[in-house]
Amino acid sequence: MASDLDFSPPEVPEPTFLENLLRYGLFLGAIFQLICVLAIIVPIPKSHEAEAELSEPRSAEVTRKPKAAVPSVNKRPKKETKKKR
């Protein structure tokens, strides 16, 4: 009776090209997500040079004037007189 049992491994077909492509694509996507999450969690100190550039005003920004707010077309203009109650 012990001779009737077959302990050989089951036959598994080799994965196709598309299955391999999907498998490795999923691995790469998971690694990319881990890198993105770590980039958010782990703060990277800024270099001293980058801070110096940000503190200096740019010549183009100094000459610009702030634009007036453009009223949107959908909103009605406010009445200048107060309502009498």
TrEMBL record:
The chain crosses the membrane at residues 24-44. The keyword Heme does not apply. It is found in: Membrane. The lineage of its organism: Eukaryota, Metazoa, Chordata, Craniata, Vertebrata. It comes from the Eukaryota. Residues 52-64 have a biased composition (Basic and acidic residues). Belongs to the UPF0239 family. InterPro entries: UPF0239. Residues 75-85 have a biased composition (Basic residues). It is a single-pass membrane protein. The keyword Cytoplasm does not apply. GO terms for cellular component: membrane. It holds the Pfam family UPF0239. Keywords: Membrane, Transmembrane, Transmembrane helix. This is MANBAL isoform 1. Residues 52-85 are annotated as: Disordered.
